[in-house]
Amino acid sequence: MSGKNIVQKILEAHNISEKPINEFKLGDPIFVTIDQCITQDATGTMAWLEFEAINIPEVKVPLVISYIDHNMLQTDFRNADDHQFLRTIAAKKGAILSKPGNGIIHQVHLENFATPGKIMLGTDSHTPTGGGVGSLAIGVGGLVVATVMAGEPFELKYPNVVKVNLSGKLNRPWVTAMDVILELLKLRGVKGGLKSIFEYSGPGVKDLTAPERATITNMGAELGATTSIFPSDELTKHFLKAQNREEDYTLLVADDDAEYDEIVEIDLSKLEPNVALPHSPGSVVKIRELVERVPISKLLERFPKKVHVDIKTHVGRLYERNLEVDQVCVGSCTNASYLVLATTASILKDQTVASNISMTVSPGSKNVFMQLAKEGLLTDIIGSGVRILESGCGPCIGMGQTPPTNGISVRTFNRNFYGRTGEKTAGAYLMSPTSASLIALKGKFVDSLKEKTIKPKIFDEPDDFITSKNMFIYPPKDKSAREKIEIIKGPNIADCPINDPLSSEIKGLVLLKTTDDITTDDIMMAGAKVLPLRSNIPAISQYVFNPIDEKFVIKAKKLNPNNKRRVFIVIAGNNYGQGSSREHAAIAPMWLGLGAVLAKSIARIHRDNLIQWGMLPLEFVDPKDYDKINQEDVLILKGLDALREGISEIEIKNETKEFTFKAKLNLSSKEIEMLSKGGALPLIKTKISQTINLAVRSEDFL
Ligand code: MIC
Ligand code: SF4
Fold it and tell me: pLDDT class for 6, splitting at 50, 70, 90?
């Protein structure tokens, strides 16, 4: 037998299924144990409400951390109430809390806890950031984490493992790790990682520090990948040692004769600064091409039709405006580590941000912030006219810094979906902090490789990072102290809703027919107005599909005045639900009456979220049937009591057009159980009450 790749090694060490690792095929369900779980406030309030509903005394995963980093504006009582709830439930249930201001979940976790060889789950799609130090780090919905914290094993669909072979060296300082992941997105697009884990390897790996690797694994989420991972080597050791946790280091590399399902080659020395055009992280071109004003028709030839209108509108506007930009935002879980911000500071030093530009910098963590301050680099940043924001997600999730009408925003973030900036007419361009900083100084897109005067400095990774821990709140060690803690819930925090058990048939109106690549931001928008409602499903459901159909909720209420379950269906193209892990994009439509999504394909996390909440993620057997269905048709889904493990085909009658066609879904036996009960919550409640009874009985015998 051939050797193992890193993914196989980690899965093997955690496998609790009945068969050994070498017998798994693509898509087979594999059960693994979980070492760490992380939540963040925007998804975490729901996850913790679910955990509370499961009603067990404390978390059963060795390390659980609840981060507060998304909802930080506190424009009224709602966010502060959420924070209070998260603080009290963490203390009671045995989780560490990372206070607001401690930093962005993924950056803080990378610095403090991510560990080579461990498997971690996070209620956030950018959890794969931990892959930068060799963790197998996977983003999932809140209910998956809630059930795993309650002791359930985690079920993963066995992935394709793609080797990304890095050769050569980056042409620093202007070409960075961000350009590597943008290159991969250029090569493969936003669907290019479906069902896959990307394992990085090759001589180029040695040139990348752990935080740079984390930039790459973080944004691997935009490929639709299950996760991405780097080996754990000398550079990992240096990073962990500098974070004062050398004991977490283990060597983790693939065997020389390891096999992969696919190999991608990237020569780092050939890369140039890249940029993702509005509104997709997959629409990547070289910055130089925009500066040279490559005709839009030439750019369009590279991209699917779906994105053509966006590119025409936004690049057209950029060219008309002589490449001028309104806003530059540096930060996010992708690009806010110490080294990248130190280089940013060296670009800004003794310069002034152009008068037409508002520039912000949000350091990824409190410790990054302090390190920049200690070394005087913060002075260079502030001195140039940058607006410093606190360490948090901020503008990345539309919490402030919304650009002007028709604005052109340059961001170092990982997503530029339609409307995500908070302004639907604006366009966001994604690129590295070094490229973005030069643009901020010049006021417009420029080719950094031709820059003569500004000379950015490349910093070595420090041997000692600042490793302050005083914004973590550890739960009381003493069980009786934990028991006494009262969970505080403000008036905006509503109970967790629940679905009905599935019957044999669903009759539903097609309330919406959408196109390809609908994002979770399209289904359930973020931003300062809506994020404070994340712990209140009835309230947040008023925004379902708002960015793409403002009348959707009115239609849903008219159809379903008594708030019944499973009365309408959504028809979609490919990659429905790409983007975030927010389960609100499943729960809120469920609340309005969604029974099933019937699509050409559905993104992994969103598919799982639908099942977790008792809705059917169906795919057309013949994608051409998509064209035969119209909005407002009535569909009848039959034989739902006969779902079986593996691929089931379901007969669907279009009652309006009088024809029958087929849809399919590939389910594990656990997923069938979940669907039939109405989701993971009703299922686990049944199971847990049995376990508790059994435990009491065995104690009685002792
Ligand atoms: C995002 O980047 O979209 C988020 C906000 O971090 C989400 C989670 C969420 O919606 O709260 C994610 O990436 O999963
Ligand atoms: Fe926060 Fe943006 Fe990262 Fe999501 S992508 S965790 S909103 S910084």
Answer: very high
> For position 1, what pLDDT does the model report?
62
pLDDT digits (tens, 9 = 90+) for 611-661: 999 999 999 999 999 999 999 999 999 999 999 999 999 999 999 999 999
- Alpha carbon of 416 to ligand 2 centroid (Å): 12
- Taking Cα atoms as reference points, which of 199, 132, 168 lies closest to residue 271? 168
For the chain, which residues make up each domain, given as ranges? 6-270, 274-447, 506-685
Q: Give the distance (Å) from ligand 2 centre to CA of residue 277.
A: 19
Q: For residue 437, with 0-12 CB atoms within 10 Å meaning exposed, 13-18 middle and 19 or more buried, which class applies? A: buried
% of the chain with per-residue pLDDT over 90 = 96
Ligand nearest to the CA of 399: 2
Beta carbon of 397 within 6 Å of any ligand 2 atom? yes
Is there a contact between 325 and 310 (Cβ–Cβ < 8 Å)?
no
**CATH architecture classification, 274-447:** 2-Layer Sandwich (3.30)
Compute, in angstroms, the gap from residue 187 CA to the centroid of ligand 2.
24
> Ligand 1: which atom is nearest the Cα of residue 123?
14
Nearest to 140 by CA among 154, 153, 124, 160: 124
Phi/psi for 602 (5° steps) reads: -130, 135
Q: Distance from the CA of 333 to the center of ligand 2, in angstroms? A: 6
Phi-psi region of 385 (alpha: psi -120 to 50; beta: other; left: phi over 0): left
- Ligand 2 atom with the smallest distance to the CA of 526 is 7
Q: What is the pLDDT of residues 484-528, one digit of tens each?
A: 999 999 999 998 899 999 999 999 999 999 999 999 999 999 999
Is residue 333 lining ligand 2, measured as CB closer than 6 Å? yes
**CA quadruple 67, 71, 73, 77: dihedral positive or negative?**
negative
CA distance 623 to 652: 14
- CATH fold, domain 6-270, is Aconitase; domain 3 (3.30.499)
Greatest Cα pair distance in the chain:
81
Question: Could you tell me the pTM of the whole model?
Answer: 0.95
CATH code of domain 506-685:
3.20.19.10
pLDDT of res. 689: 65
Dist. CA 295 → ligand 2 center (Å):
33
